[in-house]
Design goal:
Layout lengths: L4 H11 L7 H11 L8 E7 L7 E8 L4 H11 L7 H13 L11 E6 L12 E5 L14 H20 L5 H12 L6 E7 L8 E8 L3 H7 L6 H11 L5 E9 L2 E11 L8 H11 L5 H9 L2 E5 L8 E13 L6 E12 L4
Antiparallel strand pairs: 1-2, 1-11, 2-3, 3-4, 4-5, 5-6, 6-7, 7-8, 8-10, 9-10, 10-11
Amino acid sequence: MIVHVDELLRPLSTRMPRELVSQEALATASEVAHLLPRMSGGISLECRLEEGASQVDFMACGMLSDGSAQALADMLASAGERLRGPLWDGVRAFSREWLDARSPLARVPFLWLEYDLPRPLGGVPQPFAFLCVEPEFLKPPGRALEHRKAVDAALQLASRGLEVLRGKPMTPALARTVARCFELLPEGGVIEHVAPLDCRGRDAVRLVMGVPRPHLVDYVERIGWPGPRAQVEELARTWLSPLSFAEVNVDAGPEGLGPTIGFSLPLPDEPRKSWASEVLQRMVEQKLCTPAKRDAVLDWPGSERVTLEGYRWPSKLCRTIGLKLVCRPNEPLSVKAYPYFECRFSLWM
């Protein structure tokens, strides 16, 4: 369901721990949110967990199934000069194809728009657009495509989506790096999201892929991450052992993969009663996270029923959270948290 951003920000402002997101950072996120298209029932913030790190970025998710494609297209068509520039023009072009049943992009189940904050004074927020290129991502388990056919279909979808968002095809060198990450996926692996890095001034593509954890180290090595294999082995052993499926973020460029790599760590709905509590305590001991931020992360998940303005039936507000471990070759880890806040229509708790 799509709700007005105020309906998400109002409860968020009272529940978000200040240890994770300061009042000033939340005010900046709110200001940016009001400049953006109304296309979402869920928002997320990106928070740094180390001591003294205060930057907070903002993200909104639009789903094809709840009318976000039409809402995004309508808002961008009426935005005039307010949301202009090559990056917004790319999202505008994508929104048109997202609605076109003849386009392969009509199979994209959802779109994330991320905004690096704070933006330049008086500047328009510039979108970092993530396309989900796994059409079955939100569907219940069923008869899946054979692995190679599914990978080929996702690559075609990614290539078209990136071309539309960037306003130009990938160069042959960049296309080869991106294709290699698809082609070397092990059985059971998927490319989940692709995002052009033009918003950060780079001729590169962020890829988010899911890999069965037993294949993780081999896969990262085969696609050409420039760091040592032992570093990934240690990271997988120390932090990812509770997972059966690992989500990996890499940046693919014309000359190969960039040095930064990320590993997502989704937390259970009740993290204090699970392995997550031990993992976060270990992060505190290694100075990757402060004790106050650890407690804020563990206390964030939950849900409640509220009646939103203009609705007769209560909705369910769900709070979930995940972490991302970010590393570079032979350098210390850093950790980010992603508190997510979503409004769902529900007859029951």
